[in-house]
């Protein structure tokens, strides 16, 4: 089996990093629209929705270029990955429709949960039954919204490997620069971001903020308000 997700590989399959620096203050919230119920829960917009969409389209292009016309099973890591996966799959579909290659693609899901408040916990659950026999012998693209410590990605990789796929690649929209990283770097990375807790575009803080379109940095008062 080919194992494409390298430990401590600084560059993914799509080359250069797309780094948001630690001193980037983000965009003022006033520049964009966002749900009024989150006023004062957010510090700034780190990545506006339109930029996420444009970057996702380019990631789809890079993924397609690396595939040839092999069948693909997309494995979405829920819940945080649902929006990115949906947009990525849509872009892959559109791009393959507009090219000569016809790509048979299936989509499956696994739910992995470990966060409480803004902290990773050792309690990593696979929620629900995960019969992923569809992965056997196939090329698999694991789609994850954010890689922070990398524990969730490691668990997803182990789970997928158990079904003996032909090969695995990983697309991660965000990779966070954290001191406690296991060192996993997806083959396809959207943005490398500072070590701040981000919400929106399906990323949550205790299930809040999934209904926010932009990727934003949560404020301290937002953390306090929704803390469990
Ligand atoms: O790299 P890690 O430190 O493991 O963190 C990344 C994971 O954390 C979040 O999941 P969470 O446990 O919050 O579950 P959710 O996706 O259902 O919100 C996020 O959606 C990633 O899957
Ligand atoms: O910044 C984050 N936001 C949401 N979920 C996460 N899981 C790890 N880091 C994050």
Outline the structure in words:
The chain has 228 residues and is an alpha/beta fold. The chain has a domain at 2-21 and 49-113 and 123-196: Rossmann fold, CATH 3.40.50.2020. The protein contains four helices and ten strands; from the N terminus they run E-E-H-E-H-E-E-E-H-E-E-E-E-H. Strands 1, 3, 4, 5, 6, 7 and 8 form a seven-stranded mixed β-sheet that branches. Strands 2-10-9 form a three-stranded antiparallel β-sheet. A hairpin with a 2-residue loop joins strand 4 (105-116) and strand 5 (119-127). The longest helix has 19 residues, at 49-67. It is globular, with a radius of gyration of 17 Å. The protein starts with a strand and ends with a helix. Residues 1-11 have low confidence and may be disordered. The protein binds 1-O-pyrophosphono-5-O-phosphono-alpha-D-ribofuranose and hypoxanthine. Residues 80, 115, 146, 148, 176, 197-199, 203 line the site of hypoxanthine.
List the topology elements.
Layout: E1 2-3, E2 42-47, H1 49-67, E3 72-78, H2 82-97, E4 105-116, E5 119-127, E6 139-147, H3 151-161, E7 167-176, E8 188-193, E9 198-199, E10 215-218, H4 220-226
Parallel strand pairs: 1-7, 3-4, 3-6, 6-7, 7-8
Antiparallel strand pairs: 2-10, 4-5, 9-10
GO molecular function: hypoxanthine phosphoribosyltransferase activity; magnesium ion binding; nucleotide binding
EC number: 2.4.2.8
Cofactor: Mg(2+)
């Amino acid at each position: 089996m080919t194992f494409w997700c390298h430990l401590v590989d600084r560059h993914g399959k799509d080359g250069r990093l797309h780094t948001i620096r630690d001193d980037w203050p983000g965009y003022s919230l006033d520049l964009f629209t966002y749900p009024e119920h989150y006023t004062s829960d957010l510090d700034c917009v780190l990545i506006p929705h339109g930029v996420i969409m444009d970057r996702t389209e380019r990631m789809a292009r890079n993924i397609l270029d690396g595939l040839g016309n092999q069948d693909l099973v997309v494995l979405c890591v829920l819940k945080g990955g649902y929006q990115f996966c949906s947009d990525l799959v849509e872009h892959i579909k559109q791009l393959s429709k507009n090219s000569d290659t016809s790509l048979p693609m299936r989509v499956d899901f696994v739910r992995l949960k470990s966060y409480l408040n803004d902290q990773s916990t050792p309690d990593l659950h696979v929620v629900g039954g995960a019969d992923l026999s569809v992965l056997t012998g196939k090329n698999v693209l694991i789609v994850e919204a954010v890689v922070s410590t990398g524990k969730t990605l490691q668990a997803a990789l182990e789970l997928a490997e158990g079904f003996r796929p032909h090969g695995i690649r990983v697309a991660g929209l965000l990779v966070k620069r954290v001191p406690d990283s296991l060192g996993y770097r997806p083959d396809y990375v959207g943005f490398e971001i500072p070590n701040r807790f981000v919400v929106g575009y399906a990323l949550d803080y205790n299930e809040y903020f999934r209904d926010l379109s932009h990727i934003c940095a949560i404020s301290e008062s937002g953390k306090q308000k929704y803390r469990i």
